[in-house]
Design brief:
Radius of gyration: 26 Å
Distance between the termini: 13 Å
Shape: globular
C-alpha cells in the first residue's frame, strides 16, 4: 500500500515539507544594533534562498558570539541553532543537524526542560531529521515540542497544531496510517475546544479533514477483508461527517445559498464518488452546488461552468448518458467568456482521467527475471478513448514486468473513465493515447529512503 500512501501525502502539498520550512524557526534574540543589522541581512538572504550569503553572515555572527558561551549560553545557543537552520535549509542536513543539536545543548544549559525557548530549536531539529528520513527521531522531536506546548499552554493549545500536522506526515511516511488518523482527529478536538463545536472558525479544519479522510479511505480497496472494510467505512464516515458539519455551520451562519457552501458540497460529492458505494448520493450535492452558483450574483463567471463540469464528471463515472449534454453546456458557457479560455482548454482540449486516479508507480513483489536491479520497470500501453469517456483497444507496446502484472494493468486501464475532448461543440473520440506505467520493488536499489513521498 506504500504507493497509495505516497499519493496520500500529496493531499498535504499546500503544507508540504520543504528544505526551507526550518527557516520558520529562526530565533530573533536581542542583539546590539550592529549585530542586529547583520542578523537582518542574514534573514533576508535566507528567505530569498541566497544561502551562500546567509551562511557567511551567520558564521560571522557565530564567530562574534564566542564569548557568550560562558556569559550567556542561551543566547549563544540561539545563534548557533540559527546557523544550523541555515545549513539545513541549504540541504547540508547532517552538518545542520549537528549544529542545531550543539546549539540546543547550550540553550538547555540555562533553561527549564519545558521552556518555550526550546521550541524553535526542537522544531528545527525535527524538520531536519524528517528531511534526512530519520522518521522515528523526527517523531520523537515533534512530540517533545508538542509536550512543551502542553506544559506551557495546556493540552488543547492552538500552538501545537503545526506539530500535529508534522506528526501526521511522519506517521504516513512510516506507514503508520492509524497514528496519522489519530493525530488528525485530535486536531479537530483542539479546534473545537478553542473555537466551540459550531464556530465558523472550524470550517477550514472540517474541510481539510473531509479531504484527508476521503484520501485515506481510498488507500483501502473496496474488495478487502472484513476488518479492513470496516476501517474503510469508518474513514469515509469521518470524511462525510466533516463535510456535513461544515455545511450545517455555513447554513446556520450565512444561509442556504451562500457561496461558502461550494467547498464542502464539492468535497462531499468527491468523497461519495471515492467511496464507490455512495455515488448515487453525490448527485444531490453537485446539483445543489450548481443551483447556488446559478442564482448567486456574487459567483465568479466560471463557477457555473465548473459546477457543470463536476456534474458531468459524476455522470461519466456512473455511465449516465446525461454527461454529454452537461459537458456541452459547460463548454458553451466558457466560449462566451474570453477570460475563461484557460479553463476551457484544460477541461476539454485533451481527455482528463477521472477514475481511478493515476498512480505514478505500482509495486511488485520481486524483481522480474527480465530486469536487473536498478532498471526502470514499466509497461507501455496504447489505447483509444471514446466520446463517452470509455477506454477501448488497449495494446501492450513494451514491458519488462511479469505477464500477471500486465493483465492486471490492462484490466485496470479498461475500467478507467475519462472526461472526453470537445471539438467545435461536440464530444469526440481520441485515438492512440500512450501510457507508460512504472513499477518498483520495495527496498530495491532503485528506491531511495524518501521515494514514498
Amino acid at each position: 500500500m506504500k504507493q497509495s500512501l505516497a499519493a496520500m501525502l500529496l493531499f498535504f502539498s499546500q503544507q508540504a515539507l520543504s528544505e526551507q520550512d526550518t527557516l520558520d524557526y529562526l530565533y530573533t534574540p536581542p542583539l546590539s544594533e550592529e549585530t542586529q543589522i547583520i542578523m537582518n541581512r542574514m534573514m533576508i538572504h535566507a528567505r530569498n534562498a541566497e544561502f551562500d550569503q546567509a551562511r557567511t553572515l551567520s558564521q560571522t555572527l557565530l564567530n562574534g558570539a564566542e564569548p557568550l558561551q560562558t556569559m550567556d549560553p542561551k543566547l549563544y545557543g540561539e545563534i548557533m541553532v540559527n546557523h544550523g537552520i541555515i545549513q539545513s535549509a541549504s540541504e547540508e542536513h547532517e552538518l545542520g543537524l549537528s549544529t542545531i543539536n550543539r546549539g540546543l545543548e547550550h540553550i538547555e544549559e540555562k533553561s527549564n526542560p519545558f521552556s518555550k525557548s526550546l521550541i524553535n530549536a526542537v522544531m528545527a531539529k525535527a524538520l531536519t531529521e524528517m528531511s534526512m528520513g530519520l522518521l522515528n527521531q523526527a517523531e520523537d522531536s515533534f512530540r517533545r515540542a508538542q509536550h512543551i506546548t502542553h506544559r506551557q499552554e495546556g493540552i488543547y493549545s492552538e500552538e501545537q497544531l503545526i506539530m500535529v500536522n508534522y506528526l501526521t506526515k511522519t506517521s504516513l511516511r512510516r506507514g503508520a496510517s492509524s497514528d496519522a488518523d489519530t493525530q488528525q482527529l485530535f486536531s479537530l478536538l483542539v479546534a473545537e475546544r478553542i473555537h466551540g463545536p459550531d464556530s465558523t472558525e472550524l470550517l477550514p479544519t472540517l474541510n481539510r479533514l473531509g479531504g484527508y479522510f476521503a484520501s485515506r479511505g481510498t488507500t483501502i480497496p473496496v474488495i478487502t477483508s472484513s476488518e479492513a472494510g470496516s476501517e474503510r467505512s469508518l474513514l469515509f464516515k469521518h470524511s462525510l461527517n466533516a463535510y456535513e458539519r461544515a455545511i450545517g455551520i455555513i447554513e446556520q451562519n450565512y444561509g442556504e445559498h451562500d457561496l461558502r457552501l461550494m467547498q464542502p458540497l464539492r468535497g462531499l460529492a468527491s468523497a461519495r464518488i471515492r467511496q464507490n458505494t455512495g455515488r448515487r448520493y453525490a448527485e444531490p450535492a453537485l446539483l445543489r452546488a450548481l443551483d447556488i452558483v446559478s442564482i448567486n450574483p456574487d459567483a465568479a463567471p466560471t463557477d457555473q461552468a465548473q459546477a457543470l463540469i463536476d456534474l458531468g464528471d459524476l455522470y461519466i463515472i456512473r455511465s449516465d448518458q446525461r454527461a454529454g449534454e452537461t459537458y456541452i453546456r459547460a463548454w458553451q458557457l466558457l466560449q462566451e467568456m474570453p477570460e475563461a479560455q484557460n479553463l476551457a482548454r484544460s477541461a476539454f482540449d485533451t481527455p482528463v482521467r477521472l477514475l481511478p486516479k493515476e498512480q505514478p508507480t505500482l509495486l511488485l513483489d520481486r524483481m522480474p527475471d527480465a530486469a536487473q536491479p536498478g532498471d526502470e520497470l514499466y509497461v507501455s500501453l496504447r489505447y483509444d478513448i471514446t466520446a463517452d469517456g470509455r477506454v477501448e483497444q488497449v495494446k501492450v507496446l513494451d514491458r519488462n514486468v511479469p505477464n500477471e502484472q500486465v493483465r492486471l494493468l490492462r484490466t485496470r486501464v479498461k475500467g478507467t473513465r475519462y472526461r472526453p475532448r470537445i471539438e467545435d461543440g461536440q464530444l469526440v473520440r481520441t485515438d492512440d493515447v500512450d501510457m507508460r506505467q512504472l513499477f518498483r520493488v520495495p527496498n530495491s536499489p532503485q528506491v531511495t529512503d524518501d521515494s514514498s513521498t
